[in-house]
Amino acid sequence: MRKTVRQTKGMMGEMCAELWMKRQGFSVLQKNWRSGNYEIDLICSNGKIMVFVEVRSQFSATKSFPESSILLLKQTSVQKASRKYLAENRVQLPVRQDVVGVRFSPWGKQLLHIPDAFH
Q1: How far is 91 from 63, CA to CA, in rounded Å?
Q2: Mean pLDDT of 57-61
Q3: What pTM did the predictor assign?
């Protein structure tokens, strides 16, 4: 099935976030994990902590940042999805939810990683 432009751009941001998390010492356990209505972009671990990552990409030079588009409803969804994943997989590690915002512009790429973003 053919990807839309939006999906392709989202995948580019997720690839950047995945590389970033690996450089930070994490293994990527799942990409685009889905269960029912829940979806998590990246699920990572370094053996000491489990990290659920919401990735936001932007392809313009606007004044707002991609991570600022994560509203309370999405935060709640990521938290519920995280709990569901933990229960289904019987994970017993400390957990946090991170956000990685990637902005692509004519001047290059900017990446902002916000650990424990929803606290």
Answers
A1: 39
A2: 73
A3: 0.86
